[in-house]
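User: Hey, quick favor. My workstation is busy. Could you predict this chain's structure for me?
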Amino acid sequence: MPVPPGTPAAPAPAATPAPSGAPSRADLLDFVRRTAADAELVASLPLDPEGRTWVRLAGPGGSEAWLIGWPPGTGTGWHDHAESVGAFVTASGELRESALAARLPADGWKTLELADGIDRERNLPAGTGRSFGRHHVHEVLNASADAHAISVHAYHPPLPQIRRYSRTGRVLRLEHVERPEDWQ
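Assistant: No problem, here it is.
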């Protein structure tokens, strides 16, 4: 997730990490829920009618966290977060997540034909969200024609890469890989 140069990490509520010191999926979900409920923080995000906006947050236990604004009709496209687990919650508006209910191979492929029945879709109105495991392939969209949405996301370990995909019917194609230097 790109961050404008010089943007400081915004404070966010603290979370209790898992005993190992690394936050679990449940810890990340708890963090994003509490952060999304911080009306002052959510209202502080500048919104742009043309494109997504974001502010990096201080996540729990060394995790990477973001507050993201979504203009009407904007989305992420198909992607995964590699070896990171994550969670996100809609703070205002509504987002839609399309996801694959199958774990894909991590490496060694460029094109896959997806089996029938693995597509999942969920609408996430304000206050709702989810956590996910490693290699979770999804896309997130603000399907509204006229209202912004805002969400909070957290990943651990901090994102080592994001793999971007294109999809035509049942065919998923790896298009490119982004590394932290591409968005920080």
